[in-house]
Amino acid sequence: MGIVERKQREKESRLRQIQEIAAELFYKKGYAETSLDEIARRAEISKATIYLYFKSKDDLYYQIVEPALAELSRRLIKIAEDTEEPAEITVRKIIDATRDVFFNDPGSYHLVSHYRAAEFKRLLPKNRLDNLKSLMRSNFHQMEQAVQKGIDQGIFHNVDAKLVSIILWNCFMGVIQFQENRMDLESTDYRKPTIDAAVDLILKGLKSR
Amino acid sequence: MGIVERKQREKESRLRQIQEIAAELFYKKGYAETSLDEIARRAEISKATIYLYFKSKDDLYYQIVEPALAELSRRLIKIAEDTEEPAEITVRKIIDATRDVFFNDPGSYHLVSHYRAAEFKRLLPKNRLDNLKSLMRSNFHQMEQAVQKGIDQGIFHNVDAKLVSIILWNCFMGVIQFQENRMDLESTDYRKPTIDAAVDLILKGLKSR
Amino acid sequence: MGIVERKQREKESRLRQIQEIAAELFYKKGYAETSLDEIARRAEISKATIYLYFKSKDDLYYQIVEPALAELSRRLIKIAEDTEEPAEITVRKIIDATRDVFFNDPGSYHLVSHYRAAEFKRLLPKNRLDNLKSLMRSNFHQMEQAVQKGIDQGIFHNVDAKLVSIILWNCFMGVIQFQENRMDLESTDYRKPTIDAAVDLILKGLKSR
Amino acid sequence: MGIVERKQREKESRLRQIQEIAAELFYKKGYAETSLDEIARRAEISKATIYLYFKSKDDLYYQIVEPALAELSRRLIKIAEDTEEPAEITVRKIIDATRDVFFNDPGSYHLVSHYRAAEFKRLLPKNRLDNLKSLMRSNFHQMEQAVQKGIDQGIFHNVDAKLVSIILWNCFMGVIQFQENRMDLESTDYRKPTIDAAVDLILKGLKSR
DNA sequence: CATGAATGAGTCTTCATTCAT
DNA sequence: TATGAATGAAGACTCATTCAT
Lengths: 209, 209, 209, 209
Hints:
The structure is a homotetramer. Chain A is mostly helical. Chain A folds into two domains: about 1-55, Orthogonal Bundle (Arc Repressor Mutant, subunit A); about 65-205, Tetracycline Repressor, domain 2. In chain A, about 80% of the residues lie in helices and about 0% in strands. Chain A is built from ten helices and no strands. In chain A, helix 4 (about 55-80) runs antiparallel to helix 5 (about 85-105), helix 4 packs parallel to helix 8 (about 125-150) and helix 8 (about 125-150) crosses helix 9. The longest helix of chain A has 28 residues, at about 1-30. Chain A is elongated. Chains in contact: A-B, C-D. Chains A and B meet through helix 7, helix 9 and helix 10 of A and helix 7, helix 9 and helix 10 of B. The structure holds a DNA duplex.
């Protein structure tokens, strides 16, 4: 009994290990410049072994990106459920959750921070592409809802909620990416305070007078 | 006589044509996934012809990216010269100039919106890398100066100018990128109003109270 | 158990097969005019397979040339150890060993008979180049020592030992090369008797009076 | 009138200049590794211009190699005409003439010192190949005749004349090649004395007792 | 006569993927 | 399950050759 379970656990850990290494490389070097050879070498397994766990390079990529995005989606949906909560808090919670998921799973960084519609279209089969799109749309939608709630609650100016979501979302992404590049040089991680400051500023703008 | 001139003009137009096609592909698909084969096919020339105009793929990339960034640098430096001008106007001018340059030269999109320090380090020789870095730093610096001016003029809160620059800059980049991906589906170009709204919001935050 | 060994043997035989075919082509056509495509075709393997065994074309070349030269070096050093032996015999032994190594490994033919300092300098990394140079110098040195011994023993005239070595060495190489070209037409292999006759003549010249 | 002549002279000098540069490169780097681009660059003409004077790269090669070999052939035939002359002197004359021609025309170096039957067969059309072969055979034949004359005159031992010719010829070639490689390092030109010493030695061997 | 421009064919090299063991 | 070995397809780059001017 225990043997089967152990095998199962080992298999999963192996799988996750591949994913983690691949995620880091995909993020650092991009999809095309990441070779299965390097992933295999770092994971200290044979290249062929990767094919036991993933059908193709695309598949590996998808299997990294989808779970992170799905997890974020679940969390944002949960956060958005509380319709009574002041919008400002909801917005901050969404940002926090997003940052949290991304910090814990650098692989998903790649997806979002370097997301290029055209690239995905070439890379993924339609159903997978659609799934990712729908997840992203959902996440984006939660932010939009929160901003709209703020407007309805009279906390925020009467602005275009969608537009504000775009701004918040991109500000977040921009900061991440900017600081990533910076971290190549400096070692200190300023991502959290920078994001917080950015959100403060935008919220101040939303609430001012 | 006129013959030489015409030849010259033809050569330059050919060169620009290659650059434009390459810029679009680099932007859409990234450096690694763009093949010279495809560039040649789209430009309806032979692959070898590209090598008449550019020493290598790296070189082609650099020749696309550098001029746009240099042009932006020139414009921003000029804008920043007027130290009397109210900071808010200067900030808007910087944003406008940036957008202007980028809209006229989609190639530079790629550099900035997908800029990855690590990738460049592998791609470019040291002197070219340094040149790009210095241009980017200069551009960023102008924004920082403008924000600082606003603080000194008592128009903006006493915030970290550098941080605000990061936010503004990334907001800009984020909006561009977001809308780019969006434009793959819809055809309307919302980039300008979205950027303006974003800047409005951030400036409002900076000035509030 | 035996499986692993058999695999090992197969791998080595494959490697040697590639080397043999490559050696022949390098010899017949020179480095630049020998394509990996042709090597692969003749070995009835894929071009990519070559890269499983050798890091590059240069590497393949070096791996062919170095072992033969090193083997020759070992043998000549051993022969030269006997300082009592009459010089004439030592010289003949050196020639015999050289011929032996070269006949058993046509790849090394190329190196020595077509050796061009300039070509190697472009082809090989410094440490490999140095290694080959040092091997060649060592081999040459053994001959020089043997001739000097003959002079000291009073068997040979008092000539410049270095010069005589050059003559002997090149005579050997020349005969090989000449006969090689000839063999393209005739099929009989006159290399051994021709070399022997050449050495006889030169030794006679050294000893005359 | 004079104009036509000047043009003619200019054309010939241009032609010879191309040949000289090409000869040097062919010799130093080999046929395959010498590019018309480099020849053109060094001659400060356009690559296309080379095609005004030579039908192809092969043709250029042949036009370099053939005249030198033909000139040598003419001289050797003349030398061999004097059947009364002591064989030793004739042999030395042949060697001197050979060296002379080669020193004055490094292009022919390449042909003979790096002559590879197989390469030529691929490179040249049958009639040209046959012509070169016949020239080389003729040159070789003169040496053979001279040695035979020495035997008939009772000056040389009764050896195989053909074999001795091979030895002499290759000794010459070997020394040239060896010293060429050496000259890459040292600058002094030891080719003449080394060849002379080699010939002395061999002649001594031929005459001893 | 001379050349700048263009290109097709070929070269080395990499890599995702398959398969026998 | 795991892997070493093999490969087809593709990519960057070079070069001899042609041609319009």
